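Changelog note: in this version the structure field was regenerated for every chain. One regenerated record is shown below for reference.
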Amino acid sequence: PTLVMKVPRIGAGEPGVNIVAHEAERTVLAALQGPHVPRLVAAGDLTRLPYLVMEEIRGRPLEEWTERAPIPPGEVARLGAATARALASVHAQHVIHLDVKPENVILREDGTAVLIDFGLAHHAESPDLVAEEGIAAHWKYKEGRSGVGKDDQAFAWLRQLLEWQQEVKDPHEF
């Protein structure tokens, strides 16, 4: 499998959220497994060189689908169901993503949805690094931090997909 490396920007002039997001993502990815998340292969230490090496997810981001709205109702249902299965898998492992949006969901060739970018995520059995640091830049996600399964951003995005589906005049016209 092809791997990708993610290195946070740290140092003078860079926002502190980069370090917190890196640590949150490292902690959460190390705890997750299954077809709906990238497999973490290696991680570097913050004191030397922070990095994450993970499986490259091949496929199309859902953002490409939403940019082509209106989306036929069958496609909306398929995309929504695939995303819901990915969220259910992550929630069953006691993680809330907290940044679910079309560019953070990749649809593989086989239709499996994969969630990426876990920098704001929280595992129920680990410290909530983003909340502990009081990262003001991410205030809109604070509402969903009350517990696993309350990923309000995901539900808002799925609701938006359904609204786009209702705007379709002719489902065969796409």
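Spot check on this record: The longest strand covers residues 3-6. Residues 131 and 145 are 8 Å apart (CA to CA).
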